[in-house]
Amino acid sequence: EQQVPHDAASFLFTHFHAWPIEYVLYTFTVVLSLCIWLLLRSFRRTKGYSFAITVAFLLVAASQLYALAPTTLELGRYGKLREAVPIHSKLDALDTRGKHFIEPTTNRTILLRGVNFGGGSKIPSKPFQPTHILHEQFYTGWRNVSFIDRPVALSEAEEHFGRLASCGFYFLRLLTTWEAIEHEGPGIYDFEYLDYLQSIIRVANKYNISVYVDMHQDAWSRWTGGDGAPAWTLEAVGFNIKTLHETQAAFLHQEHKRKLPQMAWPTNYGRLAAGTMFTLFYAGNEYAPLTHVDGESIQDYLQRHYLAALSALVDKVGNEPNVLGFDVMNEPSEGFVGLEDLGKCAWPMRSSYLMSPFEGFKLGSGYSLPLDYYSDAFVYNHTEMMNVHKKSAWLPGHECVWKAHKLWDIDSETNEAKLLLPEYFKKHPSKDRKPNFLNDFAKPFYQAAAEVIHDNSPRSLVFIEPTLFFGPLRSIPLDMEESGKFVWAPHWYDGIQLVTKSYRNWISVDTHNEALVLSKQNLLNSHSGMIGNLMGLVQDVGESGIPTIIGEIGIAMDMVRDDNGIPSAYKTDDYSLQIEAAMPLLASLEQNLASFSWWCYVPDNNYITGDQWNGEDLSVFSPDRVMDESDIFSGGRILEVLVRPYARKVAGEPLFMKFEPLDIERKFYFVFNHSPEVAATFPTEIFVPHYQYPCGFHVTVSDGEFQLHNTTQTLLYYHDTTTEQHEVQILANVCQ
Question: Where's the Glycoside hydrolase family domain (predicted)?
Fold first, then answer.
């Protein structure tokens, strides 16, 4: 049995039950105050003196402890719009220069703002298969699915793109999947779906919205607990998709009959099916040289088909004027590459069933084993015997890939499984050193993908990501000699908030420095530092670095559930806690002048099943919250902080930007340096949302002149080119 420590500290801090910490601090304060009083009394101080000192201490302590209580936000008045407002000017081309995005026609620096559109792209529309339902065709009808109308029906697209443009989101990460393009079989593409995707992109263009198209995946595929790859990729390796859940080679929401543990789906990255597929995809030639499909190495086979599907996608939409790039693969995984010991569970998060890779190998090969079950993140529930019917995760005639490579075997006398090479993945087989997944295996794939993209669309940017759990910043940064129009697109979340679906503004975890963070200001500093560190990882790529966009960042909307599992905000329509959780994330992005695409916007989100995928509910829009159909902002969530003024096109180099969304004046302040490479005829464009300034605003500039274009919510600032530094300040008019 896998032994896992169920210690109090792990439960308290990682599960994030913050209320016991608060009560401990309150009790400690009272006890310490009593000790102070007794100490003063022992020095024969007067009663009045001792009492005064003790009360003073209590008042100071109380003022600090007050910050631990949940905040009640005083939200002001927000604007309404009856009709969509398009973005002021199109972004028809995008280039890179060092760490900056550049508009090539004007040399202005570009700051990108957008959302992921949308989470619903992960699941097919025909037949509709959200993960909370085990559809009768899930295992047998995968060749005949369709992803047309995911993430949105073409007939409804204008409504949603109009809303996004009115919110100032003009650069969307548009999700698609390998399965959506090539579900029927190897080399068979769904051209009707590609036609649909092209039509969606053209609707976005009507509102001057640009996109970068994301080849999305999570944990490899829908049959391994996520989304992305077609089912035939698993069968090509020898997996039996019908038994993956029962053998614990995968954990499926569709098959789990009990309450779904929070964030259980990421555990699939460490299980047999997804761990094997990623290892074979990126590093099969090194670690699984005996595995072939029709005489072709498994790595070459999988990458060839993936890149061909990418080529079909780029060929279809890559030359649309508002398509500015492609995200090569969402949240790739190193699989088992780099693991120190296959006999130990190295998975960082405890949710659902916990096992070591070797235990996964055995379960997948017909063994029954006891596994610890976590009913919520980091909350141990019980130990359960798994695969009691001794099913195999492999198709008849196939055996475990890793048994075939002699990592483990079965003792002929005892019939017991024995781990022969526990450190097999610890070293790079041909270089005899510790593998660096990003540079050894991901980089060659990224370069091959860039060639495919640029063969069909030479102007496109190529967005690349680190692995999902690439750890603290002792990780080796990307080592590439040529920038090659690459963009670094890491993701960042407040892991505590996301995993526990709870929030306290005074406690978090700094995953880069592996430290507990206490106090509101330290939390903001930590968030900002981690985002800045992510951006710094690529400062030495090429001659002067490459730009960064935070490809995903967001918060769980379904926080603080009652005994029936219903989030409080859905009953009260009070999103104060969600707003407060989003504030330090957005402030950290501003401090780093970071471009980002917020996760996410799901047109068919609802209050019962959320984003329709693995229990997640992060969408910034829900039809269930539409109260006023005449107001384009109705249905939005956390717009109070998410919709904000920002400099979009800068005639120089941005230096500082800050917005104070809860201040009565909603102050916006922006500073930049003049660039001689930008002609004086090209102004700095600042998005000024009517939503934040319903009663108007007044502008102060350090020099030059400005123009207001209220019909497009835009301030155009023409600065004095003889001055180096320039400032813009916007303050709201107080509504009467």
Answer: 161-334
